[in-house]
């Protein structure tokens, strides 16, 4: 690797010039899955997909390179010259939006890129129980990832939730959907359902909200302050009457 890099540095300008003339003369180009320009490939979770890179109009053996994002893909020796194939198996959510690029080894400006568009439904299920004290705030959170992005709808006790401007707040990103309830009351008791809908399917999660009576808070700070005041008062009284106390003793 080091030796090849040191040889390439001083020869960079003439090599690029020769390569450019060769491309003009022969029309050398690459294609991936018969596409000569960058493109997006839509697929689904699970089944493997193959990407095939081919050199066109070449009069000599051309080495090919593959990249997944910024990282180079390891290729076997028999899978590098004039044609090169890679397989993504199994396709999963982490492959969504990833760019795979085939490049000519001797001139990386000759390349074709493929962006994977992995489509999958919302993954959301289960239930959660929340105990909240009256007059406290609570936030119900649905974490749901999907492609295309799902849209949330909130229900209370199987009915569409009627939002009150000063009482409810909604927040969402591409993967997080939240319902906040300010200063919960007994009337907020019930089952809240987050439904995330997409063209490929829906995801659902239930929240059982139980509003508990407001607890009486023991005035710890006030008691401590009273004890301190009483203690100081007693101390001053003792100091003021110390002569009489000593005479008694």
UniProtKB/TrEMBL annotation:
Entry-linked Pfam families: I-set, ig
Molecular function terms from GO: cell adhesion molecule binding
Record Gene3D superfamilies: Immunoglobulins (2.60.40.10)
Keyword Transcription part of the UniProt annotation: no
Membrane-spanning intervals of the chain: 222-240
Gene Ontology CC annotation, any one: plasma membrane
Chief localisation class: membrane
Example of a GO biological process term: cell-cell adhesion
PROSITE patterns: IG_LIKE
Location of this chain's protein in the cell: Membrane
Domain Ig-like, residue spans: 46-113, 122-212
Keyword Repressor (UniProt): no
Topological category with respect to the lipid bilayer: Single-pass type I membrane protein
Assigned keywords, A-Z: Disulfide bond, Glycoprotein, Immunoglobulin domain, Membrane, Transmembrane, Transmembrane helix
PANTHER family: IRREGULAR CHIASM C-ROUGHEST PROTEIN-RELATED (PTHR11640:SF31), NEPHRIN (PTHR11640)
Name of the protein this chain belongs to: TMIG1 protein
